[in-house]
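Limitations

Structures in this collection are predictions, not experimental determinations, and the ligand pose is part of the prediction. Treat each record accordingly. The example that follows, with pantoate as the small molecule, is included so readers can see exactly what is and is not provided: the inputs are given verbatim, and the output is the predicted complex.
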Amino acid sequence: MQIARSVSDLRALLAPYRAPAFVATMGNLHDGHIALLHRARDLGDVSVASIFVNRLQFLPHEDFDSYPRTWDQDCARLEAAGCDVLFAPREADLYPEPQTFKVQPDPALADILEGHYRPGFFTGVCTVVLKLFNCVQPRHALFGQKDYQQLMVVRRMVQQLALPIEIVGAQTERAADGLALSSRNGYLDAAARAEAVQLPLALRALADAVSGGRRDLEALEGEAMQALAARGWKPDYLTVRKRGDLLPPAADDDAGWHSLVVLGAARLGATRLIDNLEASAHPQATHFVSSPTPHRGRLAGSA
Ligand code: PAF
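Predicted complex:
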């Protein structure tokens, strides 16, 4: 694996290639990132990962300073996974001057849900992702579906700005109990880690209620939030939305009800977790985005 610390080094390394496949990360890599890298190896003539903790997407009170930086382990994992090129710019390389030109995503998509609770988050994400795309010039870029809204925002940016990049979404990787893998899971102590699975279970219960015929979403979502709050969580949202635009389905919109996603964000102690699963109002059609069968069974409470 070759490591580029600057944009010019990266361009020199990638010059011989026509179709890089790219995985953008903030480091502290887990199996979800490595699964993306494996897909990148299949898709590109060179696989490229980036590690860059992007200040622009953190609010002042968030964990930018304490975000885990695990350089040695990350390099070892990428090397073992067969990554060809690692782009790890220093902040002064990617942002040599204050980044005053920013990508402003469509507020209809970016100011709801995560964007509501983390104002400016998707502006920061889009700005760095576009900049990384300009550095790497990938033909394919891979993103995990755990960050469902992020994946949608990036897809929309690529489409609206006519970037010649295919965005590939990959299913969420889960631990054996069903918790979505996330760099922030490392913040959880043993008790919180055991409790954390209640988030995907709550999403599963919501999805099942909808697939079982409930349409009173406000009441359902309120019950789900209260149930988590009663266990000591501080939920931001647990909500059922249409996959196409992340808005609530209208009562008479049959197609919308058949193509839903249940999204949740909640704080457990100081750790904020997010997760989602795709669902459908059609009986028996609800399923987890991530498909490892044992996890699915366990979360459904049937294993
Ligand atoms: O999902 C992430 O890790 C980050 O938001 C990303 C896409 C690497 C941009 O900083």
